[in-house]
Amino acid sequence: MPSLLERQQMKVHDPAAHTFWHWVRFDLLARVAIDHAATEILDIGAGSGMLGDWIQAEHPSIRYRFEELSPLLDQALVERFGAEARHPGDGNIPSTTVVALLDVLEHIEHDRQALTTLFQRMQPGGVLVVTVPALQWAFSSWDTELGHFRRYSRGQLRTVLGDAGFDVLSSNYLFPELLVMLPLRKLRRAKRTDVDFPQLSPWVNRVGYWISSTTARLRRFWPLGTSVIAVATRQQSNG
């Protein structure tokens, strides 16, 4: 039987379930890829493959590849993107690839170990983009039932990346306008049978995208937000 997380990912494969907060993250990731002249994006923990659909539509010159541990989701990704898009989970990652860990790290119990392993796979000069849910005080049953081990502050994400060997280029909060959602989730006590990600009307998505795109451009100024985004690199060796 699919887990709650797998059901969530299968649900958000439907374009009607895509939301402005997904698009804002994807915009930021694409900007990093363009700035670093990347030829491909490797989506680790790809889930529904929403990022792949977006890249193919918005930036078709950038190749999309994925890694996914869930056999159920992996098979769905192969059916949509082809077996050639599947990247080996232990394969080396060239410096021309931007690695995306979008809301994945919080699902990994030993996050430093996982990041260290990823660091060792990446060639010098490679770039990593990470997003995670923010603020441990907001941890709720929503996190538990999705398999989250923790939420992060901006400083904590910077520290765990640095401990794994990465040089952190930036670490910022996103979506300060959505902070009101956190206490509402925390107040809910009933066990969830589904994930409370709403389907938004096109109008609400357009307005939300305009607001969140604006706050994302000003992200260096926000002291809090519902997510953290960090950009890190494996530095070129001096030798």
Low-confidence stretches: none
| The number of domains | 1
Helix content: 25-40%
Number of DSSP strands? 6
How many angstroms separate the termini?
51 Å
CATH architecture: 3-Layer(aba) Sandwich
- Our count of helices gives 9
For the biggest sheet, the summary is: 6 strands, mixed
- Give Rg in angstroms: 17 Å
The strands making up the biggest β-sheet line up spatially as 2-1-3-4-6-5
Mean pLDDT: 89
CATH homology group:
Vaccinia Virus protein VP39
Structural class label: alpha/beta
CATH T-level topology: Rossmann fold
N-to-C series of helices and strands: HHEHEHEHEHHEHHE
Describe this structure as you would to a colleague.
The chain is an alpha/beta fold and 239 residues long. It has one domain (4-233): Rossmann fold (3-Layer(aba) Sandwich). The protein is built from nine helices and six strands. It has helices spanning 4-12, 20-35, 50-58, 71-81, 111-121, 141-145, 154-163, 181-187, 202-217, and strands at 40-44, 63-67, 97-102, 127-133, 167-174, 227-233. It has a six-stranded mixed sheet with strand order 2-1-3-4-6-5, with helices on both faces. The longest helix has 16 residues, at 20-35. The termini are far apart.
